[in-house]
Specification:
It is built from eight helices and 24 strands. With about 525 residues, it is of the alpha+beta class. It folds into three domains: about 220 residues, Rossmann fold, CATH 3.40.50.1460; about 80 residues, Immunoglobulins (Immunoglobulin-like, Sandwich), CATH 2.60.40; about 140 residues, Porin (Beta Barrel). It has an eight-stranded antiparallel β-barrel. A hairpin with a 5-residue loop joins strand 21 and strand 22. Helix 2 packs parallel to helix 6, helix 3 runs parallel beside helix 5 and helix 6 packs antiparallel against helix 7. It is elongated, with a radius of gyration of 51 Å. It starts with a helix and ends with a strand.
């Protein structure tokens, strides 16, 4: 008998420990109530609203920072502190509550600190807190859920401005995994209330204090209560981008099937507790056991008595994903099992594009008048081929000798040509010398077109120079000779066929230079 009592004691002990546990995510809140304004009309209830919401959230397990009649610096510092706390855990819940004056300007919403001194609309960004900035900071924390509640539409003390208007504007850029709640719909004014709290906050408190409600249920009921109490003059606006389930308070544990409480008393048992982040159906499979239990998000299933042995635990989620674990429960042993799967929130479908209006048929074009055929242009390929004949005239540097040339070209490739020609030179009166010579030559040149119809060329060649000199009055008689000559030349050919050239000639014992100008007739 004593042995049975000891076994029963160790079986009950884990259950007692489980009863004290409540697995909850980290929860942090920032509550701001601004009513004692210095330069715009004061509000009676925001401080009461903030104090009462603080108490309600603390009862739900939130760690709350409260700012009453906050300045701009205090509000901004508190927002940064909330973001820092939420970023420490991806499982955390965030809750931001504001009661006080709020205005819209240019489609953007701003929360006014009590020391706000805003002489013009352009000063809002520097002297008020942008709601979009608050949303962006909370979104950057990367936590599980953020809730933003704004009871800030009581009136617009700055509505005289061009961009201002009644109430607050629709949220333009709502972060994922967030629920944003306005005390009234966009462009409308909320009731400041006749009692301790504003109309919206009064009904929000009632729903926060109701145990066991899921977060969507809290705000849907609050909206319905406010609309009914105001005769639909005030209808809260809810912007939802959170597609999971969550409970802000303590959720009662799911009751296990009766099979786990029955059984012979002489069977040695242990204890099992199952936690899940995402809602689903858990199946417990073991010897003589095959039970299914439905669990909500952040649900807890404490089984105080389960026969010791091996079990397969299967968690089936609504989106079709499955997690499976194999565990062993020993005598008087407490086993804790956690399922941490989270579904990826679906993307919002893009709105369908409006169909484009059908285009009006274009009137038929009038036929264009026929153009005169263009004259073919000379291409660079044509310009590079120098099949020509021409003449030129020039002189040498060595003596005042006139030189005339007849020459022709033949282009075997695109950027080169082969040249044949003959020079005729004669002169008289230079130191009583009469001179006559002729010089047949062959030259190969490279050609680079750089203008339309002309270009630059350079080449090298060779030939034989036949010359005759008569020395008058000096008694030296006549001299006739010939020699092998090598030459190098360079020059330009212009569009109309005019050429300018320079040649250097040498028989390897003496040298001369020649410049000349001429004309080339080109064969197309």
């Amino acid at each position: 008998m004593l042995k049975k009592l000891i076994v029963l004691f160790f079986a009950i002990l884990p259950a007692l420990a489980f009863a004290q546990q409540d697995r909850q995510p980290p929860k942090f809140a920032l509550v701001i109530g601004n009513g004692n304004y210095t330069s715009i009309p004061r509000l009676a209830n925001p401080v009461n609203d903030a104090n009462d919401v603080t108490a309600a959230l603390q009862n739900l397990g939130f760690t709350v920072d409260t700012v009453l009649n906050g300045s701009l610096d205090q509000m901004e510092s508190a927002v940064m502190q909330l973001r820092s706390r939420l970023s420490a855990s991806s499982d955390s819940y965030g809750f931001f509550f504001y009661a006080g004056h709020g205005v819209q300007s240019g489609g953007e919403n701003f929360l006014l600190p009590t020391d706000a001194n805003i002489p013009g609309e352009n000063f809002l960004r520097q002297r008020a807190v942008s709601v979009q900035t608050v949303l962006d900071e909370l979104n950057s924390a990367g936590n599980f859920l953020n809730i933003v509640v704004l009871d800030a539409c009581r009136d617009n003390p700055l509505s005289r401005w061009r961009g201002g208007g009644r109430g607050l504007a629709v949220v333009a850029n709502q972060p994922a995994d967030s629920i944003i709640v306005f005390a009234t719909s966009a462009g409308s004014v909320a009731d400041d209330g006749r009692g301790r709290n504003g109309l919206f906050t009064e009904h929000l408190l009632n729903n926060l204090r109701t145990p066991g409600r899921e977060v969507h249920e809290i705000f849907l009921n609050t909206g319905a209560d406010v609309a009914e109490a105001s005769g639909r003059r005030q209808v809260p606006a809810i912007y939802n981008q959170f597609f999971g389930t969550a409970h802000l308070g303590v959720r009662p544990p799911v009751r296990p099937p009766a099979v786990f409480d029955a059984g012979p008393t002489d069977v040695v048992t242990g204890a099992l507790e199952i936690f899940t982040v995402t809602a689903g159906v858990v199946q417990i499979i073991g010897s003589e056991v095959n039970e299914t239990v439905e669990l909500p998000a952040w649900g807890r299933l404490p089984i105080e008595r389960i026969n010791s042995g091996n079990y397969r635990i299967v968690m089936q989620y609504e989106d079709g994903n499955v997690e499976e674990r194999n565990i062993e429960v020993g005598r008087a042993e407490e086993v804790t099992l956690e399922f941490s799967y989270r579904p990826v929130p679906p993307r919002e479908p893009r709105p369908p594009r409006e169909p484009r209006p059908p285009r009006e048929p274009r009137p038929p074009r009038e036929p264009r008048p026929e153009r005169e055929p263009r004259q073919p242009r000379e291409s660079n390929s044509d310009l590079a081929r120098l099949n020509s004949i021409g003449v030129s005239a020039g002189t040498t540097f060595a003596a005042p000798v006139f030189v005339g040339t007849i020459h022709g070209t033949l282009a075997p490739s695109k950027y080169s040509f082969f040249e044949l020609g003959m020079d005729f030179g004669f002169g008289s009166g230079f130191v009583s010398v009469d001179h006559f010579s002729f010089y047949p030559f062959a030259r190969y040149s490279l050609f680079l077109p750089f203008v339309n119809g002309g270009g630059w060329y350079t080449g090298a060649g060779m030939g034989f120079m036949y010359s005759s000199y008569t020395f008058q009055g000096v008694g030296m008689g006549n001299v006739t000779g010939n020699s092998f000559i090598a030459d190098m030349s360079t020059g330009f050919i212009l569009k109309n066929g005019i050429t300018f050239s320079y040649s250097f000639r040498t028989d390897f014992s003496s040298a001369s230079n020649k410049i000349s100008a001429g004309y080339l007739y080109r064969f197309k």
